[in-house]
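Tokens as discussed.
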């Protein structure tokens, strides 16, 4: 394929992605109304930022728990010796 076709495919994929996102944003109020009418709960998906924050919180909690467990084990070993 020559350069022009490669460029064309790139911009076509990019335009399709933008089109899809635009459609989702435009239809979001209608989706919300339909979900309310049918009784389904509307819960928006967490953004990328929210996902990263929740992952960091989980990692922090895991690190705290593991450090507490390690300190508990060390204290037990010190008492036993």
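Sequence:
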């Amino acid at each position: 394929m020559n350069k022009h076709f490669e460029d064309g495919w790139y911009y076509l994929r990019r335009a399709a992605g933008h089109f899809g996102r635009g459609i989702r944003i435009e239809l979001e109020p209608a989706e919300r109304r339909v979900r309310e009418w049918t009784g389904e709960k509307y819960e928006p998906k967490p953004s990328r930022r929210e996902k990263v924050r929740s992952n960091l919180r989980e990692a922090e909690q895991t690190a705290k728990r593991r450090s507490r467990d390690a300190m508990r084990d060390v204290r037990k070993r010190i008492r036993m010796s």
